[in-house]
Amino acid sequence: MPSKDKILDMLQSEPNDPFLLYSLAMEELKQGQLPAACEAFDRITTIDPDYVAAYHQKGQALLQDGQNEEALRVLQIGIARANAVGNDHAAAEMQGLIELL
Hints:
Layout: H1 4-13, H2 18-30, H3 34-47, H4 52-64, H5 68-84, H6 88-99
Helix pairs in contact: 1-2, 2-3, 3-4, 4-5, 4-6, 5-6
């Protein structure tokens, strides 16, 4: 995965690229920047509501941060989107996270 600086440079020319935003969000998570990561995940789901990995990762991050209610909300939306696009695997993974609550 490219460095955060490289990702930010690429986003200058393609600010609505879901993959670049996902890469940025994951880098933010690695650096412990939960609010910035969640903002990037939210941008992804605004641009592409069917990018189910963003819901999964945001939900997981919120759970790790103790924000269980918000995590539950995000995961429920993610499961609905995953089901809508036929991604049973992602839906099952998010359901598994909910069951940990």
